[in-house]
């Protein structure tokens, strides 16, 4: 009898120790996650001063001065052998989660693309020129990271951006719902004075469509979005029309 009671007490003690061990392991895991998050925050803060200053300086370097001629006649440009600066500069940013942002940017650019994109932890930058009739437009685009912890800071710093493109996948209803998050960020952060586009990508997969044009237009109307396009980053359908509209 005594041995049974002793065994029960021993079992209870073991169970108690196991419970304490599990709790300790959970706390250790939580602390590891907290440390990891803090390390990411520290890295972001370190990058903040240097990266955003560099980005802002680059943007300002390319801004056309007020006293610079805006558009040169094509006849004058053809006569001049000197390299001229773009007559206009456009700035835009793309947001969306795994919907083909990089592919769309690659399709938008042409042979005037100036080198590979500059990769950073938070933003990828594409820069290229487009010829439209008598003017050359320098198009600068920023592919914002999908990490929510960076998006608000990124959008606040990019105050020179003229256009925001919300990109979704027409074969994914969830990707359109996700665009609501970005619209909420824009409204919450009071990011005003920007032209906003809602772009449905992957029209080449029309047979797999989950988002109808009517549904997208409803989203556009409810969120007071300026323009709506559908494109295919794979085939190029609608891309040129989008670029001309943005420029």
From TrEMBL:
PANTHER family: PTHR47978. Keywords: Coiled coil, Nucleotide-binding. Signal peptide: none annotated. InterPro entries: P-loop_NTPase (IPR027417), Small_GTPase (IPR001806). Pfam families: Ras (PF00071). It comes from Euplotes crassus. CDD domains: Rab (cd00154). One of its GO terms (molecular function) is GTP binding. This is Uncharacterized protein. Residues 14-48 form a coiled coil.
């Amino acid at each position: 009898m005594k041995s049974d009671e002793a065994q029960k007490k021993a079992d209870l003690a073991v169970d108690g120790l196991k419970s304490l061990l599990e709790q300790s392991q959970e706390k250790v895991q939580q602390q590891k996650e907290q440390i990891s998050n803090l390390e990411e925050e520290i890295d972001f803060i370190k990058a903040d001063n240097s990266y955003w200053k560099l980005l802002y300086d680059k943007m300002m370097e390319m801004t056309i001065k007020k006293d610079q001629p805006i558009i040169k006649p094509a006849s004058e440009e053809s006569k001049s052998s000197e390299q001229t600066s773009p007559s206009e500069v456009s700035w835009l940013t793309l947001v969306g989660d795994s919907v083909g942002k990089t592919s769309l940017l690659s399709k938008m650019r042409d042979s005037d693309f100036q080198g590979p994109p500059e990769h950073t932890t938070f933003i990828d930058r594409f820069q290229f020129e487009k010829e439209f009739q008598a003017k050359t437009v320098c198009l600068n685009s920023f592919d914002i990271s999908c990490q929510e912890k960076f998006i608000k800071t990124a959008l606040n710093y990019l105050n020179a951006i003229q256009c925001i493109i919300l990109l979704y996948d027409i074969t994914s209803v969830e990707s359109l719902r996700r665009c609501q998050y970005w619209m909420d960020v824009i409204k919450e952060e009071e990011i005003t004075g920007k032209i906003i586009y809602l772009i449905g990508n992957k029209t080449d997969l029309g047979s797999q469509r989950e988002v109808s044009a009517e549904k997208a237009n409803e989203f556009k109307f409810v969120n007071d979005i300026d323009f709506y396009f559908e494109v295919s980053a794979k085939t190029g359908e609608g891309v040129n029309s989008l670029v001309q509209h943005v420029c």
